[in-house]
Amino acid sequence: MTIYIEQLDNGSYQSIINGVASNPFVSADCSTVIWNVCKTITQTGCSCCTHKIIFKHGIYHLFPYRINGEDGHLSDGHPYGIPFYINNNKNVLIEGNGSTFICHGQMGFALLEFSDEVLMQNMNIDWERPYVIQATVIEHNNEILKIEIDSSKYDIGTASGNLHLRAEPYDAYEGCSLVNYIAIHDNCNVFDGYGNMLQELRDSDVGFIFENGTADEEGILGNIKTVTFTVGGTNNNLLPIGSQIIIHVAAIANDENSRLEQINVITINHGWKTTLRNIHIFHSTCRGIFAHNTGRRWNGTTYDNNSGFIHLDNCHAMVKPGSGRCFSTLYDNAHFCNCAGQITIENCHLSGMGDDGINIHGRYYQVIYIDEEDNTQVRVEAEDMQPEVGDMMQVVGRCSLERNEVNDFFVVSSQVTNPNDNPKVYQLSLNRTLSGVSHIYDLMENMTWTPNVTIRNCVFEKRNRARAVLVSTPGTVLITDNVFHSAGAAILIAADYFRYKESGGVKDIEISNNTFTECATSVGDVNHAGDWGRAAITIEPETTAMPITDQGICPTGIVHENINIHNNTFYMHDVPILFARAVNGLTFKDNYVWRSLPPQYAANMAAQQVAFRLEGVTGWSETGTKWSFDYPDNWKVTGIV
After folding, report:
1. Closest CA to 38 of 57, 28, 23, 52
2. 483, 350 in Cβ contact below 8 A?
3. What is the DSSP annotation of 592-622?
4. What is the DSSP string of 553-596?
5. pLDDT in tens, 309-335
6. 11 vs 448 pLDDT, higher one
7. Distance between CA atoms of 409 and 392, rounded to whole angstroms?
8. Among candidate residues 288, 283, 294, 295, the one with its CA nearest the CA of residue 266
9. Does residue 447 register a pLDDT over 60?
10. Which residue spans within 241-390 are E strands per DSSP?
11. DSSP 8-state symbol, 211
12. What is the CB neighbour count within 10 angstroms for residue 312?
C-alpha cells in the first residue's frame, strides 16, 4: 500500500491511497489526515506487504486536538493527539522528502508500538511556540535583574508579581478550561552570546530569583518586552550583560488544568527493527527520542529473538539554524531504557538539549519484600519498566553494586500492585527461591534488556546542559570517531542506584579516536563536585547505605570491567581528564593531551586537580600518553584512593 499526502494550493490537505484521492480536508491542521492514514494501514492487517506514507515536500502544521473523538496515545489514554501512530504493523516507510512539520501546543509527533521494520526519514520537526522563555540580560545587580524578551517568539506576561509563558490556545482539551498561562519553573541556565553555556553557572545558580523575586513588566518596544525582577532571595552570581538566560517551564503549575504535558517527539515501544534517518528535531516539551523494550521481536504472546536494532542516522535534536534559540529539547536528545539487540547512533550533530545528549541504561528494581514462606514470591519497586514474563534477573548488592552472576532468576509472573502511583510496586513470581541470595533493599537487575551500543561520527556541542553520553550496559560498547565539546562530562559511565535506578555495570567498552575539546567546563568546583560528572570521562557508580541516605556513596565492590580508552585527543582547559570508581581493568593508552587556554574558561576551577583520579580501581594502566610541551607537570598526576 502506497499513500501520498500533500497540501493543495488552497491550503487543504489530502491523501492519495493506491492512486485514489481522498476528499480534501479543508483545515490548517494535517493531523487528522495523518491519523486516518495510519488507521488505514492498521486496518489492512497485512504484514507481508510494505506500507508507504510519502509526503510531498512542504510545510505541514499539526495540532493536538483529539481526532474524531479518539486519543492519539492509545496505550495510556493520553488526551492529546500523536499524529503518527503505528501500532502492530510491519514494513512501514514514512518518507518526509525534506518536509517541515510544525507542532502547535502540547503534543507528540510519532508513537511506534509493537511494530517491526519501520523506517522514518527526511523530515524536520519544530514547534510554533517553544515551551521555554529565553531572555537577554540588560542589567543585573544585588537588587534587580532586568531582562529583555522577544514576545514574538516567547509570549510572556506577568501576573501577581510572577512571570508566565502564555500557552497556545490549542493547549485546551476536553474537560479542561482554556490555558492562559503556564507557570515557569525556578530552574534556569545561562549562555554566552555564542550559545555556549557559561562555565560556572549551572542550574539556578543566579539564585532563586524567579521563585522569590517580584516581576514587573516595564514596557514594550516593538516585540521586545522588558521585565524587571526585584531580587527576593540570595543572588549567587551576577550575570554578564548580553548573556542569554533560559527559563524552564514548570512541569506542573498550581492549576491542575494548566499543567505542561511532557511528551516525547518520537517514542518507540516494543519495536524490533527501527531506523530513523535524516530527522532534525528543533524542539520538544520532553525528550527528542525515547525507546524502551525494543530489539526483541514480539509475536503477540512472547518474544522470538534478540536480533533487532534501533538505528539513528543523522537523526538528532539541534538548535534551529537562524532561530536565535539556545535550547532544542527540554530534556535528553535520545533516551534508551530496557532495550536489547543493537543500538547504533551515527552521523548525528547534537545541540541545545535541556539535559543529556544520549542516555542508554537498564533498570534496577529495589527488593522491598520477600515472602518468608515462599521465597520465590518477591515485591520490587521502580518508577517504570515492568519486568515481563521470561525476563532474566540478577541480584545486585545494595552497597557493593556487584552482580551475583552465579544465580540467574526468571520471571514467571509479573503484576503491578499500584498502577496509579509512582514508584510502581511489582509483584513477581520467580522460577526458584531467593533464599540465601537476596535480602531486603538489595537490587534486582533485568539482564534480558541490555543492548550492544555503537556511537560513531557524531558531534556533541556545548550548547546544552549536562553530559554528552551516558552509557550503562553489560553489552559490547564502541564509542569512536566523535567530537565532544560538552558542558558536563563528555562520557559518563554510571550504574545509578542513588538517584534514578539506572543500571548497570559495564563489561566491555572501547573509547577510541575521539576528540575531546574543552569538555567538563561545568563539572563543578568543590561546592558542586559531581553535578554533571567530575572529568571529561567520568566512571562513577553510585549506591546508598541501607535503607536510604541523603547522598550517594562509593560502592564497596567492583561494578565496571574492561574499559579501554585509546588513541583519543584531549584539548584540556582544566586538569581532570579521567575520574574512575569501582573498576577492574581500566586502560588509558596512546592518547594525545594538549593544553587549551580559551579566554572564556578559567583553569584550576574543577574540584579534581589531578589528571586521573582512581577510587577502588584495579588493573589500571596508563601508557604512551603524549603531552603537549606546555602541559603543566603538576597536572600530569594520578591520584589513587
Report:
1. 52
2. no
3. EEEE---TTS-SS-SS--SSEEEES-EEEEE
4. B--SS--EEEEEEES-EEEESSS-SEEEESEEEEEEES-EEEE-
5. 999 999 999 989 888 888 899 889 999
6. 448
7. 6
8. 288
9. yes
10. 244-249, 266-269, 273-281, 289-292, 309-317, 334-337, 342-346, 349-350, 358-361, 364-370, 377-382
11. H
12. 26
**Burial (CB count within 10 angstroms: exposed 0-12, middle 13-18, buried 19+), residue 204:** middle
Regarding beta strands 403-416 and 424-430, do their DSSP bridges make them parallel or antiparallel, or are they unpaired? antiparallel
User: What are the tens digits of pLDDT across the range 100-149?
Assistant: 999 987 788 999 988 999 999 999 999 988 888 888 888 888 788 888 98
- Cβ-count burial of 48 within 10 angstroms (0-12 exposed, 13-18 middle, 19+ buried)? exposed
Q: What are the Cα distances from residue 206, in Å, to 197, 216, 244, 455, 636?
A: 14, 18, 12, 35, 34
DSSP output for 77-141: TBSS--SEEEES-EEEEEEEEEEEEEE-SS--SEEEES-EEEEEEEEEEEESS-SEEEEEEEEE-
How many other C-beta atoms can be found within 10 angstroms of the C-beta atom of residue 238? 12
Closest CA to 90 of 268, 301, 272: 272
Q: What is the pLDDT of residues 26-36, one digit of tens each?
A: 567 888 888 88
The predicted pLDDT at position 557 comes to 82
Within 8 A by CB and 6+ apart from 342, the residues are 295, 308, 309, 310, 451, 452, 453, 454
Mean pLDDT is lowest, of 164-168, 206-210, 389-393, 576-580, for 206-210
pLDDT band at 172 (very low <50, low <70, confident <90, very high): very low
Strands 20-21 and 13-17: antiparallel
504, amino acid identity? G
pLDDT score of 136: 85
> How many angstroms separate the CA atoms of 460 and 479, rounded?
13
Backbone φ and ψ of 256, nearest 5°: -60, -30
Write the CB contacts of 20 (distance below 8 Å, at least 6 apart in sequence). Answer: none
Q: Is the pLDDT of residue 190 over 90?
A: no
Burial bucket for residue 100 (CB in 10 Å: 0-12, 13-18, 19+): middle
pLDDT of residue 188: 55
CA 30, 35, 40, 41 dihedral sign is positive
518: its cell numbers: 574543552
Question: Can you tell me the mean pLDDT for 31-45?
Answer: 81
H-helix or E-strand containing 34?
A: helix 31-44
Please provide the distance, in angstroms rounded to a whole number, between the alpha carbons at the two ends of the chain.
63
> Position 574: which residue type?
D
Average of per-residue pLDDT values in the chain: 82
pTM of the model: 0.90
The count of residues in the chain is: 641
